[in-house]
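In practice, a research group might receive sequence data for several interacting partners and want a quick structural hypothesis before committing to experiments. The following worked case mirrors that situation: the sequences arrive first, and a predicted assembly follows.
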Amino acid sequence: MESTPTPLAPKFAALGDPTRLAIVTRLMSDGPQSAGQLQDIADISAPAISRHLKVLRQAGVIRQQIDAQRRIYSVEPEALQAIASWTISKREFWEGSLDRLAQILDSQKES
Amino acid sequence: MESTPTPLAPKFAALGDPTRLAIVTRLMSDGPQSAGQLQDIADISAPAISRHLKVLRQAGVIRQQIDAQRRIYSVEPEALQAIASWTISKREFWEGSLDRLAQILDSQKES
DNA sequence: TTGTTAATTAACTATTATGTTATTCAACTA
DNA sequence: TAGTTGAATAACATAATAGTTAATTAACAA
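A structural hypothesis for the assembly, expressed as tokens:
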């Protein structure tokens, strides 16, 4: 079996669940949050959220920080970096959309 | 529940399995291949490979092309594009590695 | 202490995924 | 036509996921 340089599969798998992708998206847009604050991300119980956070953590997608009783979660930059690097290294498959990448980068720069 | 703009989760999920990630990696590095040619990607039966290909196809990650009895598979550029765009749009989390992105792009340009 | 808050772990259930072998289907080939 | 090839589907077993409620753990507050 062929393997990829970095263990990317577990990260992809972690982001493959809609609830977990929503958690990561939220942590990136709104910054670090406690497990309790993330409760409203989906209509599921607290233990369910807790398990999703565990999966994300074990895949190296998020990190945990302890603040008294609270567990604060934030996105692990290296994880995003790894995925970004992979996609970019394979960019010949975006077929002629290298321009579009430049566009995206430009628009980000200005915001 | 929060949702992401594009249905990225199924693509991440599809790439989250090591065998499927290997298939996609192979199709990108070696070009389009038939189901049979992909047989050696993992030590599993042909039907198992066939099912993985179906999952990838349903997630929009690969496309199928029919050539007589053969089914030729190739990577769907839009899928990679979608993932790349997402990561790039979130690039503030690569923490100071914007330079590194430039590096990656440069090295790709020359190869 | 005693109680409250925040979150996880335990135990369990239901569903989904992944693998198997056997079968079917379609398209070539002799 | 009869046989072969390439690949998918069918039927099934088992493992992994994702959810639930109940119980536990740890930290703070009265």
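Before designing any experiment, note the following. Chain B touches chain A at residues 1-4, 8-10, 12-19, 21-22, 25-26, 28, 41-43, 75, 77, 80-81, 83-85, 87-95, 97, 100-101, 104-105, 108 (CB under 8 Å). The longest strand of chain B covers residues 62-67.
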